[in-house]
Write a structure and sequence with these properties.
The complex is a heterodimer of chains A (113) and B (111). With 113 residues, chain A is mainly β. Helix content of chain A is 0%, strand content 47%. In chain A, strands 2, 4, 5, 8, 9 and 10 form a 6-stranded mixed beta sheet that branches. Chain A has a 4-stranded antiparallel beta sheet with strand order 1-3-7-6, with no helix packed on it. In chain A, strand 4 and strand 5 form a beta hairpin. The radius of gyration of chain A is 13 Å and the shape is globular. Chain B has 111 residues and is mainly β. Chain B is built from no helices and 11 strands. In chain B, strands 2, 4, 5, 9, 10 and 11 form a 6-stranded mixed beta sheet that branches. A 5-stranded antiparallel beta sheet of chain B has the order 1-3-8-7-6, with no helix packed on it. The chains are: A mainly beta (113), B mainly beta (111). At the A-B interface, strand 4, strand 5, strand 8 and strand 9 of A face strand 4, strand 5, strand 9 and strand 10 of B.
Chain lengths: 113, 111
């Protein structure tokens, strides 16, 4: 596609429920990143996929968070047993090779009530 | 660990009043410094990449410069449509390909 597409754009969920967030990167981009942005704060790295290499999961805040990517296409970020502190905008980005700037999607705003 | 600090946190300017935003960084082996613009409810939009001290990049009213310790985003004669949050990020040699972001500067330009 022309840009990075994320869905849903907004998600409200009850505390304790699981959620899945989807990211469709730019076609041909081998690198895909997930970041979290809490209200009024900077971007916090979560996880990085590069081609068929093992993902860099060093930013995942707890074992409730996981992500998958099929080849060089769609990625899903799953948050299990959501907590109120998980409320944030989750941003996905992709890049051609992993070196250089990213193209971001518009994000998924997650609200845990 | 790579670190990025942006100042000021917020900046109010009158239309036409030029100013600069600061990005101070510590990184092991800088591979690139990036500036992004973020509008409310949207993802960050790429502006510039700088790779080495002394490098400068320009786009319309914006000019980014880089030294070994900091980067500046100079805004010349800003307009209300330049109002946004400006984010700075670094890509270091020891952090894989992830970018480490600063907290951003929220710029408001009044007509």
């Amino acid at each position: 596609g022309a840009g990075v597409s994320q869905s849903p754009s907004n998600k409200v969920t009850e505390k304790g429920k699981d959620v899945e967030l989807r990211c469709d990167p730019i076609s041909g981009h081998t690198a895909l990143y997930w970041y979290r942005q809490r209200l009024g704060q900077g971007l916090e790295f979560l996880i990085y996929f590069q081609g068929n290499s093992a993902p860099d999961k060093s930013g995942l805040p707890s074992d409730r968070f996981s992500a998958e990517r099929t080849g060089e296409s769609v990625s899903t970020l799953t948050i299990q047993r959501t907590q109120q502190e998980d409320s944030a905008v989750y941003l996905c980005a992709s890049s051609l090779s992993g070196v250089g700037g990213y193209t971001f999607g518009s994000g998924t705003r997650l609200t845990v009530v | 660990e790579d670190q990025v600090t942006q100042s000021p946190e917020a900046l109010r300017l009158q239309e036409g009043e030029s100013s600069s935003l600061n990005c101070s960084y510590t990184v092991s082996g800088l591979r690139g410094l990036f500036w992004y613009r973020q509008d409310p409810g949207k993802g960050p939009e790429f502006l510039f990449t700088l790779y080495s001290a002394g490098e400068e990049k320009e786009k319309e009213r914006l000019k980014a410069t880089l030294t070994k310790k900091e980067s500046f985003l100079h805004i010349t004669a800003p307009k209300p449509e330049d109002s946004a949050t400006y984010l700075c990020a670094v890509q270091g040699g020891n952090a894989g390909n992830m970018l480490t972001f600063g907290g951003g500067t929220r710029l408001m330009v009044k007509p």
